[in-house]
Design brief:
This is UDP-3-O-acylglucosamine N-acyltransferase. It is a single chain. By secondary structure, the chain is an alpha/beta fold. It folds into 3 domains: 4-89, MurE/MurF, N-terminal domain (Udp-n-acetylmuramoylalanyl-d-glutamate--2,6- Diaminopimelate Ligase, Chain: A, domain 1, 3-Layer(aba) Sandwich), CATH 3.40.1390.10; 105-301, Hexapeptide repeat proteins (UDP N-Acetylglucosamine Acyltransferase, domain 1); 310-340. It contains 4 helices and 38 strands. Strand 21 (185-188) and strand 22 form a beta hairpin.
Length: 341
């Protein structure tokens, strides 16, 4: 278990310490469940009322909330960001692998950097390059000529096909498949003729990819994921998609081929994107959106019908089906009014 004094935490967070700096912190918890040895955070004023009942050893909060806190506190500009940083400091997640397991299969001409760890039953194929300090979890497959950057972590059963490139300091969760064939076929009189996918997947630095996500290799050019991108669980990224720096993609999102997504975008869960179009920088897409056309202006975009009680939804659906008829009637009324004028 990691432990640290409150004074040491204050120094690492560049926070103002109020209270006993010698108090030892060993874990994080929510405000309502935190107890001795734990630190919590207050990110919204609407939860100030909970401070009087909080039993945490310390609370991270803003200057304006300090007067409501009766115990030890760290004053920060962004409590949620401070929470993220403290979570990293106190992180007790084990390594994906330690040392090189006896059951790992490593090709003679694969290149392993200093301090590489490879878990049981992992396979590293010919010509692969594993950077310094990388961790390859149990059952992983790293294909021919693939590259894994320094300090990147692959959890169990991650599959990297041939020639896939992963940058430095990436984190790929269990079961993810990178570099499988894109969905490319030509039709010959009703029969499907497979188009071999000749591109790669190239992933930048500090990219995190959730469990059981699939990223297809390019048909001719590469599928590209830029630095700092975060992708949630069970997403589908098709061949030749390009995703810009620091874009965030929530779970179950589906992106069709040759889509280009800009920088600093936020994509809500279960969204669906048409292919062969472009989404500009700084776009936010709310959950379950169906994006069928390019987006050329930054901003927030939504589609779909929010959840309703079934009886109300049935009425809404029935009215939607009559929109064309209603539009025609409205146009007729407008034309009649125009004639009266």
């Amino acid at each position: 278990m990691v432990s640290i004094t409150l004074a040491e935490l204050a120094d690492k967070l560049d926070a103002q310490l109020h209270g006993d700096g010698a108090v030892t912190i060993n874990s994080l918890a929510g405000m309502n469940s935190a107890g001795e040895g734990q630190i919590t955070f207050l990110s919204s004023p609407k939860y100030r009322k909970n401070l009087s009942l909080c039993r945490a050893s310390a609370v991270m909060l803003k200057e304006g909330d300090l007067s409501y806190c009766q115990g030890n506190a760290l004053v920060v500009s962004d409590p949620y960001l401070a929470y993220a940083k403290v979570a990293q400091i106190l992180d007790s997640t084990p390594a994906c692998a330690t040392d090189i397991a006896a059951s790992a299969v490593v090709a003679d001409d694969a290149v392993l950097g200093e301090g590489v760890a490879i878990g049981p039953n992992a396979v590293i194929e010919s010509g692969a390059l594993i950077g310094d300090g990388a961790q390859i979890g149990a059952g992983c497959f790293v294909g021919k000529g693939a590259k894994v950057g320094a300090r990147t972590k692959l959890w169990a059963n991650v599959t990297l096909y041939h020639e896939v490139v992963i940058g430095q300091d990436c984190l790929i969760q269990a079961g993810t498949v990178i570099g499988a064939d894109g969905f490319g076929y030509a039709n010959d009189k009703g029969k499907w003729v497979k188009i071999p996918q000749l591109g790669r997947v190239v992933i930048g630095d500090r990219v995190e990819i959730g469990a059981c996500t699939t990223i297809d290799r390019g048909a001719l050019d590469d599928t590209e994921i830029a630095d700092g991108v975060i992708i949630d669980n069970q997403c589908q990224i098709a061949h030749n998609v390009s995703i810009g720096e620091n874009t965030a993609i929530a779970g179950a999102t589906v992106m069709a081929g040759s889509l280009k997504v800009g920088k600093h975008c936020i994509i809500g869960g279960a969204s669906v994107f048409n292919g062969h179009m472009e989404i500009t920088d700084n776009v936010t897409i709310t959950g379950m959106a169906m994006v069928m056309r390019p987006i050329t202006e930054p901003g927030m975009y939504s589609s779909g019908i929010p959840l309703q009680p079934n009886r109300e939804w049935r009425k809404t659906a029935a009215r939607v089906l009559k929109i064309d008829e209603m539009h025609k009637r409205l146009k007729e009324l407008e034309n009649q009014l125009d004639k009266q004028d």
